[in-house]
Amino acid sequence: MLELRVIVPGDMRDDVLDLLRRQVGVAHILVHPGVAVDPPGDEISAIIARECANDVIKALKAIDAQHRGAILLTVLDTVLSTRAHAAEDDAEGDPADAVVWDELIARTREESTLSVTFLMFLTLACLLAAIGAVTDSMVTVVGAMVLGPEFGPLAAVSVAIVQRRGELARRAAIALLAGFPLAMGITAVLTLAAHAVGWVDLDTVRNVDDVDFIFQVGPVSFVVALLAGAAGMLSLVSAKSAALVGVFISVTTVPAAGFAAVAGVLGDWGVAARSATQLAVNLVGIVVAGVLVLVLRPRGNLIPRSAQT
User: Fold this and answer.
1) Fewer beta carbons below 10 Å: N end or C end of the chain?
2) 33: containing domain
């Protein structure tokens, strides 16, 4: 369940209270008059079922609560209340299937911002992938997969397409289009330096066995990207972040980017081209899967909760 807090001017208090009383899935409405200082106003809180969060937020936005005050949502891990559980039972659908759009948009917007931290993580991941490729080390490549932060912008693109959010799509596209070239460029420069001192050569790229999956692109690559992208989006909308680790080590976005830079510098343009293609296939597959999950997600609970065991 979720805790809803609404901070509004005093003249909106009755409107908000009437709105919450009419909504299904709302319990334990509290009013704290006059506690807001800047701007002055009241705080109204309630416990709401996740399934009805979109309807409640939409109704609050209709009375301009987000502009005249603020709407805040907090995930509650534990709720011990018969009244709250009854309100959740009255709400249509199942909590695990509910997509709280404002929550999802806020999460993906934060994770898709082009920042120094994002660039550093992506660059470090590409460098680890490059080292794993030239040393034929599967462990190092997997570490690079987990470290890569690229799923955030890719999920944001999917959300932006479904919700038609141009600003979110632009933010995510900037992060991807600026982040990958920068990370690959730094990887290429350091590869050139390593080649100059004799640490790596063309034979290094050609004699890999354990990590050759990085540039082995084909239909299976797209299928894996679809499955991983679907799992990643499901983990986001259901707030099960632990599943994201499995997503990270299923796709070869960062390893493909790092190996493309290494192979290009060392002159193996065939491997570089196939690695770049692998990168593109994975990026597109993840976005397509994310869109499909959001579009085809369950709209409601097919079995009444009272009839479930």
Assistant:
1) C
2) 2-98
